[in-house]
Amino acid sequence: MKKIIYILLLISVSCFSQTNKIVTYNGKIVTYNGKIVTYEYFNPLAKSLFIRMFPEPTTERKEWISEAFDSLEYYYQDSIIAMWMLAADNVDNSLLDWYSDTLDATAINNPYFAQDTGWLSITAGYLDMNYNPSSDIRFKQDTISMHVYSHTNNFDNAALLGCSDGNKVEITAVSNLSLRGRMNISTGSIDVFTSNITGLISLSRIGANQYLFRNGIQIDTEVDASTGVPNANIHLLNVTFGVASTNIIQFYCIGIIRDPLKLFEIIERYIDHLGTGVIN
Amino acid sequence: MKKLSIIILVFIYVNSYSQVKKGGFFSRIDDPIMATRTANLTDALNLHDTIVSQCYKYNLHPTFAVVSEYSQGDYYVNEPYMKFFPEKLEALQEYLDSGHYLSMHSPNHSTNYYISHVDSLSSEDQLLISSGYSDSDGVDTIVINDTDSQLDFWYWKRLPDDHYGWFALDKMIDNDNLDDSIYYHRTIPPRSVYVSIYHGEAGLIKIINEQRRRFTMSGLDEPIMFIHPGQETYYREADTLTETTGYIQSYDDDTVLYYVQEIYSSQIKPIADYDSLVIFEGSSHMVDYVSGSNSPYTLVLNGYTGDASTHDCKVKPIRAGNWMWWVSGDVMNYVAENLNLRITAIYENGRQYDYIGVTPSITNKAYFKYAQQWGQILDGNYASSNIASIAEATSKNYFVSTNDHKYLLGGYEYIDSVYNFINNNLSSIVKCSMYDLPDSLYNISSPYENIVPSFDTDIDENNEQDGWSKSNEAVWTKGGINIEGDTTYMTVVQSTTVNCFPLWGVEKGNNVLSVYISNDNASSVQIIITEYKHRLGTDTDIDVVDIDTITITNLTSNYCERFRKVHISEQTDFIKLDFRAIGGNYYAIKPKIIKYTAGRNYY
Fold this sequence. Notes:
The complex is a heterodimer.
Chain A: H1 2-18, E1 22-25, E2 28-32, E3 35-36, H2 44-52, H3 59-76, E4 80-85, H4 91-94, E5 106-108, E6 112-114, E7 118-120, E8 126-128, E9 143-150, E10 158-163, E11 170-174, E12 178-182, E13 190-193, E14 199-206, E15 209-214, E16 217-222, E17 234-236, E18 249-255, H5 261-274
Helix pairs in contact in A: 2-3, 3-5
Chain B: H1 2-14, E1 24-30, H2 41-58, E2 63-66, H3 86-97, E3 101-104, H4 123-130, E4 139-144, E5 153-158, E6 167-171, E7 192-197, E8 203-209, E9 224-227, E10 231-236, E11 246-250, E12 256-262, H5 274-282, H6 286-289, E13 298-299, E14 346-348, E15 351-353, H7 383-395, E16 399-404, H8 413-425, E17 430-431, H9 437-443, E18 469-470, E19 477-483, E20 486-491, E21 497-503, E22 509-517, E23 524-534, E24 542-553, E25 560-568, E26 574-583, E27 586-595
Parallel strand pairs in B: 1-2, 1-16, 1-17, 2-3, 3-13
Antiparallel strand pairs in B: 4-5, 5-12, 6-7, 7-10, 8-9, 8-11, 11-12, 14-15, 18-21, 19-20, 20-27, 21-26, 22-25, 22-27, 23-24, 23-26
Helix pairs in contact in B: 2-3, 7-8
């Protein structure tokens, strides 16, 4: 009898101990009071983006996007003005600004699109990001950064990034195995020898200085940057040089990011999910 | 955990319902054995052997719509093909043993089983009863034919000892001569008669002509009425026969119930409803033919070959006239009368229409109510057109069937060609019997199957892509690149179109439309999606529910798949797709329409 009472006591204690118990898995609540609850967490910015995407992404891709937004918020808070994940599942989704429905990009002259990989110029094709610094109240001319992710490694003297007037901002894969970045054609240019232009190429202007990064690591500094980004739409791929870039661009971001290392890591992680990342 | 699993499984099962996205084929053979058009038993059984061996050859299991009556009365003197032989019963059992199916095709191949509902008696009816139609001299009432004024005279006498009820006959007629003070009227076509039955038992009666032994329509059929107490029976005469006297007999024992003194010509317009079919089923002799559990599973009523234009249908959704009626799955335990492409539609003469309006439910097989008059596969030497019909139907997700009669006459060559074609070329399509149809449809349905036919399919090898029509032969050609096994249609001329109609299987609610589009500069295609529903009661009209116009332009230098959301109305039965080239050189490849669910992969 004692045994039975003991067992009953154990059972009741055991049951009681389950009450109000919250179990988490990977940071998500899966049970509450012993009941399964459906608690599907997505970053609010991600959820806004999902609504704009069609077809709405798979749950797996949603988790990647949400994870990226979480990290971007954590490391950069409001430092990102606009961001385009060109390596998307389809043409329409690739042109979406992840942050705002007012800055979706436009494909001009039919550049080449590859699913989950990005865009390639092909003759005169390019992407107009529909972003003009002069019309953006968040833009700070002396504190601005641009980040473009190249899937390929072609030194073709064609711009990965530029703008629609002659005073172009540019990130160019120069033919002499060097990478050029400058905020304005009237500023000094940074030509840096690099054996590889794949990955995230970042160009930042901080005060009168401009900096060039590859994969989050600063590779050069140019102090002569007295003129900022021209007030014209930012374009990706071939712009005013008249030379078609043979590089595929997977990602573009504009913001006021001083240190792009985390950005690189976040974007690389996302692209790795797609299976098209280039950094091992 | 077990409970949870069950709940999850049930959830998945319930949510697996969708529109059917495959076409198919089934075969029905009417009047075998029992109506072989020959009194020669040896010939009949030889033909039976031929049918069975032919089906065996192609591994098909048709449904045999059998005429079930075996009365050996003298009605069959003039129609010996109806005569019953015990050997025929053995042949029927052999059908079943061979894996085929039987359905009942009425006791005697009559087209005239009918009764219509009224919810309650009208005040005029009540007045008519109370005002004095008595049975004083055996005359219930007279109605009335004046040939010149297009009135029908009927004279009915009730037999003294019979209490089957009494009839108050109404005349319908030409409105100018209608005497409202005596006869109430309804909107009934001229030269028709109402028979209102207020008392007595429900049952079957025959209307027999003295001279020809029975009134006939096509020389084959015998009018039979169902009578219900308190319900109207609508009986309509036509003007092709001259015999004017006859009597009404009990269906069961041939007891003469009423003499009919004056009957002008007979053309029966069948009207059926649910209740009369129930009675009919209960009166069938089929169960005497086949043992116990092998009673027929489907019911095929006979069609009427007369003019359907003046039909008067009182009961939805049954359309009287040129028609096979659907039967129910929930009361009579029949799964489905017959094939039609899709739930919610009824077929007539190869066209589907009449929305039944039954709420779909995976547990309610009554939802699968089909009706068909004739098969889309024609009797006779129409091999190429029959094969084309099958190819079109299967590409656009609906079913076609045979409704064979010539088989019985030995003319089965066409069937041989059709079966052979299906066997050789359409191994993937659904081949089933009427019996299997509902389950087959459920089993093959997935909401995420593309419903749009490929541009690359021409199974009937007529150089026309199955499922598609072109506005201009010269500009739309098969060609272009090959993506995932499909070639394209292309045009170099703007404003030319290619369309697909009728396309079945579209999901109600949100769908994904995706189109591959070519890389030529400014290639742009306009896609017009027209949604249709069938309109009840007409055989030619369908209603447009909605029209969406979508323009898709290629933004890239390569083939590009672009997506659009398309919302399909709950009312929509099927759609039409128009592709129209509006910019550049246009190629479209693998257009797809699939049910949309957020978070699903559509690539």
